[in-house]
Amino acid sequence: MSERQVNEHQVSEHQMRDGIQFDDGRFHRAKLGFVLLSSEQTVESDMMRWAPDGVGIHFTRATNPDQITAETLGAMIDSLAPAAAVLAPNANLDVICYACTSGSVVMGEDAVCQQLQAGYPAARPTTLVSGVFAALDALQAKRIVVGTPYLDEINTIEADYMTAKGYDIVDLQGLNITNDSDMVKVTPDYLRDFAISLDWPEADAIFISCGALRTIDVIEEIEQATGRPCVTSNQAMLWHCLRLAGIDDRIDGLGQLTRLH
Fold first, then answer.
1. Where are the domains of the chain?
2. Is the entire prediction scored with pTM above 0.90?
């Protein structure tokens, strides 16, 4: 059924108000909200490109500098609730997600979700890294190789955080990039080769961390080359948010995770 046909069907189920016909709008299946870093340049286009028809994607931004360090990420905590509060307040969002992997582990999932819920209590709060863990669990992956663009201080925090969650980090390699504006420029071809170079026979999955990276463009190539699942930040975040909103569509082109789970 086309979107127009769906909307026409919805119109027939709604009462007229002052002689005007209303339906559930373009996004009648679900609405997802994302709190981005103010420096973010990749998440918006990834979410808009891959979201299924009928699912609304809405964004707001929380203040941060271009430099991605443990200190700058931790300082974002006070800006999350105000950012969430202005995110489509009349849209009845189903899910609200903090769209930063490194920030999620630096501040902690619980602390982030508390701030999101304080700002937007009607939506279910989550974080990008929560989506990664849900994705790894769906793939039954416990032994993980990890690639990141981050500084070593953030890599250490992320490795410790994942280990505390029960994952065995077989290897973790970072690119030691400081600025978010540089992370968005790392080419997909480089990311493909970087991910393939991380592959270990002992690993259950490859995880390429960071919503700023364009890894979503080369997931299929990584999986074909290595023969094992590849989880990326934006792929896992979208998949998880859709599932939390009750949308179980399978999406081709984003690897085993969205095709099989």
1. 3-128, 131-235
2. yes
